[in-house]
Amino acid sequence: MKNKIIQKLGLVETNGLYFIERDGFKFQIVEAKNGIFKVPLIVMIFNRSLSNDEFKVISKGNPLALRGVLFDVFKPKNAIYYGLMIDKMDKLNEFLDKQVAKYSALGLEQLTEDITGSDVTDGYKYMNFTAMSGQILLNNVEVPVNLNKFEAEIKLEEEKLKDEAVDVKKYPVALLMALVGAFVGAIPSLILYSFGYMHALVFMIIPLVSFTLYKQFKGPKTIPPIIFIGIVGAIAAVGTYIYGLSTIAEAYDVPFNLLFEDAEFVAIIIEDLLFTVLFYAIGLYFSWRFMYKETTAKRLKDIQNIK
To answer: Are residues 105 and 233 in the same domain?
Structure first.
């Protein structure tokens, strides 16, 4: 991990990570990704979940950029990260000492026992975790484990995911509901057309509704449905737009085909269609991003990335 702040702090790398120990708490500094950006984060994993009130106590008095964010490490809300914004070691130690004092006052302890609950902890694994509804990806976070038990559980999970990938029983109904969702998502644009309005933003709704209904009906979380939903949604978006043009033709009492004989109007149609496709693509991207992280392919990839 190459970072100017880490270099200024003079931290020494250990197993590809950086650690700062303060009064029995060992903070780790990991690399995180937010889209195309990579940033260093300070991470602490606790032995239990934190309540919202406890998190408020920890955050109180911290600078806005260092308020901290809760995330899950096999348990809900049992880890916190801070942005690494301080490039002087004495100032960073001062900040971390204040956090440790808050942890101790709340009776919090760092996680040192096997994450799977075994009585014996004999090693570490390095895993990726997400935060902020999947917007932040924390890479190679060190967690304590019982190596044999962990490897056995990972193997079982991998077999379960492979079985899930080939289970097609729920495909028909879920795909049908995705199709229904695409057309339900098109209703807002149809309503606007009925009042003589058009707005490309409403086309973002189509893939969101389609993905939601697919998930509600327990469709297998694999890559092909994402492609199917993308294609069906695109057809619904373009079809709805064409319907909108037909309402314009009807309103002006002209044949539909005559709309395409006016060069100026054709330019407007093309521009509107491009915006329709653009906003549909934006909705599809966020829906895809939300669903992809739950697919068997992504989960298998995450398992295989564990070191």
So the answer is: no
